[in-house]
Amino acid sequence: MPVRRKAGKRRSTDGLDQWFFVFSSGHDFFDELAELGIETDAYHCPSLEDSKAAWRRLGDAFLEIPRHPEQGEPWALKEFGQPTVRRSTRRR
Q: Measuring CA to CA, which residue among 23, 29, 34 is closest to residue 44?
């Protein structure tokens, strides 16, 4: 029987639904991050460390979601820049 391939954890989009509004605006308006065990402050903002780690993991998938042109640039893109920085693989 052939071995079934597993999806890589780095490419998993689990949690994108919960992080969507944080990436858009910087706030967790509907307290969805509690489902993931992420704490927020009194203004419903997660820590910048948690946000940055989630952005690096889920940012590419978030940017693939169509947005209305009048919404402007997402908060996470302004705050952290492009989610993945591709390193060149230079052979010697």
A: 29
Distance of CA 1 to the CA centre of its chain: 36
- Convert the pLDDT of each residue in 21-36 to its tens digit: 999 999 999 999 998 9
Which tens digits make up the pLDDT trace of 49-91?
Answer: 999 999 999 999 999 999 998 999 999 999 999 998 665 566 6
Q: What are phi and psi of 40, to 5 degrees?
A: -120, 160
Report the 10 Å Cβ neighbour count for 7: 9
* Residue 75: closest CA among 26, 33, 21: 26
CB count within 10 Å of CB 15 equals 17
